[in-house]
Amino acid sequence: ELISRLRSRLQVLWEDRELVLSEARECAEHGKELEATVREVCKPNEFERYMMFIGDLEKVVSLLLCLSSRLARVQNAMRKIDGNTDAEEKQSLNERHKLLSRQREDAKDLKENLDRRERVVSGILAKYLTDQQLQDYRRFVQVKTSLLIEQKDLEEQIKFFEEQLENLEKSIP
């Protein structure tokens, strides 16, 4: 019964992931249209700033999500430490935790820098776009970020349930 429930939950997650991927493709298409508009109305250096921001948005958000996920896994492993855990493994987990924590702080700094750049890009676009187009741009940035987060969350859940299912199937003779 538990295996059946896990498989059912995985099926729902896979369907959700397909839906999010479909939304991400739509968002990417919308991004292409927005890019064409920005290319038409902005100066080349301003357009380049816009393109760098959009490219870095995905990289920085993905980096933050990845580091947070890895840090959470290390923290979970650290909670499982007990008297039987050897000193070398404890030290390795502590070092990985410190490293990932520093990297995540650096990524947060990158995100703050990216937020400042977004305000600059938004200011540039405000000179050229209508209010509706500017709202459209802001909605695009928000949706793109949300979809990246949702996609990463679904991938993590799928990975977790697949591991649970695999462990359960191995435990049954």
Automatic annotation (TrEMBL):
<keyword id="KW-0206">Cytoskeleton</keyword>
<feature type="coiled-coil region">
    <location>
        <begin position="144"/>
        <end position="171"/>
    </location>
</feature>
<protein>
    <submittedName>
        <fullName>SHRM1 protein</fullName>
    </submittedName>
</protein>
<keyword id="KW-0175">Coiled coil</keyword>
<feature type="coiled-coil region">
    <location>
        <begin position="90"/>
        <end position="120"/>
    </location>
</feature>
<dbReference type="Pfam" id="PF08687">
    <property type="entry name" value="ASD2"/>
</dbReference>
<dbReference type="GO" id="GO:0043296">
    <property type="term" value="C:apical junction complex"/>
</dbReference>
<dbReference type="GO" id="GO:0051015">
    <property type="term" value="F:actin filament binding"/>
</dbReference>
<keyword id="KW-0963">Cytoplasm</keyword>
<dbReference type="GO" id="GO:0030864">
    <property type="term" value="C:cortical actin cytoskeleton"/>
</dbReference>
<dbReference type="InterPro" id="IPR027685">
    <property type="entry name" value="Shroom_fam"/>
</dbReference>
<feature type="domain" description="ASD2">
    <location>
        <begin position="1"/>
        <end position="173"/>
    </location>
</feature>
<comment type="similarity">
    <text>Belongs to the shroom family.</text>
</comment>
<dbReference type="GO" id="GO:0005912">
    <property type="term" value="C:adherens junction"/>
</dbReference>
<dbReference type="GO" id="GO:0007015">
    <property type="term" value="P:actin filament organization"/>
</dbReference>
<dbReference type="InterPro" id="IPR014799">
    <property type="entry name" value="ASD2_dom"/>
</dbReference>
<dbReference type="GO" id="GO:0016324">
    <property type="term" value="C:apical plasma membrane"/>
</dbReference>
